[in-house]
Amino acid sequence: MTALGITPLTWTATRLAVLGDSTGVGVGDPVAGGWRGVGALLAEALGAVEHNVAFEGARVACVRERQLPLVLEGRPDAAIVIAGMNDTLRSDFDPARLREDLGHIVTRLQASGARVVLARYHDHGRVFRMPSVLKRALKKRIDQLNDVIDQVQADTKAGLLDLDAIPGAYEHAVWSVDRLHPSELGHRLLAEGFAARLAETGCAISTPVSLVCQGGRRITVAHHIAWLIVRGIPWVCRRGRDLIPLMVRAVVERRT
Predict the structure, then answer these.
(1) Cβ count near 147 (within 10 Å)
(2) What separation in angstroms does the CA of 231 have from each of 25, 89, 180?
(3) Which of 40, 79, 158, 252 has the greatest number of CB atoms lying within 10 Å of its CB?
């Protein structure tokens, strides 16, 4: 940091690793042939080659066991990790295990030479419509997850992007039709935030992330209906086994 408060450029990211779940995949930012998303947008800003190993439904243990070995082979200069929300929706949610797994992921990436930035989560209940009892239960889980992320960040000194603090984080335009994944604008805001965290470490940003939506597919009413039938209802059915006990516990805890 200089006397003027400006971090001098000290390194360039040529290889970017993206680890995590469906947000890392780019779900919510459709382009011809698939998804684009935060990874591709950030890689463009850095002038780096993207190695994206994220996949839908991934939990933190999946990142450790299946994704981490793949990216370590490529020795990335920078890495972003977006994972943990899928864990909050499961009956075997275990903060202690999450901390151990996430800590391992970050330390191994750092040992390989990568600058790592983690994502800290917003309150999904303020975006996604759900019963109030489930909203309270999920908020408690997210708070526990964020505590884990904060602890790992403090231990490793990794970068941290707080999604709750992103400007406009709770505006509808930032979210896709499912209200679970970022829209194109949301992914651009994420990429801008991750780029800023890397720039704070002296990383060169070759092209600032534009917040002007372009190049993606236009979302219509038909997309909303299709998502509800093809993805929304089946997702609720699959998660019911975990969400119902979570709601029951929330009711019991509120009354005791």
Answers:
(1) 13
(2) 16, 16, 12
(3) 79
Confidence of residue 249 (pLDDT cuts 50, 70, 90): low
- Check residue 216 and give its pLDDT: 64
pLDDT at residue 143 above 90? yes
Euclidean distance between CA atoms 198 and 47, whole angstroms: 13
Strands of 78-82's sheet in order across: 49-52, 15-20, 78-82, 115-120, 159-162
Q: Got the DSSP string for 141-182?
A: HHHHHHHHHHHHHHHH--EEEEGGGSTTTTSGGGB-TTSSSB
In this structure, the number of other CB atoms found within 10 A of the CB of residue 78 comes to: 29
Q: What is the pLDDT of residues 186-226, one digit of tens each?
A: 999 999 999 999 999 999 999 999 999 987 666 555 554 45
CA gap 191, 28 in Å, rounded: 14
Indicate the residue type of 215.
Answer: G
Tally of CB atoms within 10 A around 197: 21
Q: In degrees rounded to 5, what are phi and psi of residue 162? A: -85, 105
Instruction: Please tell me the distance from the alpha carbon of residue 26 to that of residue 244, in angstroms, as a whole number.
Output: 29
| pLDDT(56) > 70 | yes
Amino acid residing at 155: D
Over residues 75-113, the pLDDT tens digits come to: 999 999 999 999 998 889 999 999 999 999 999 999 999
Nearest Cα neighbor of 106 from 134, 139, 84, 138 is 84
pTM: 0.84
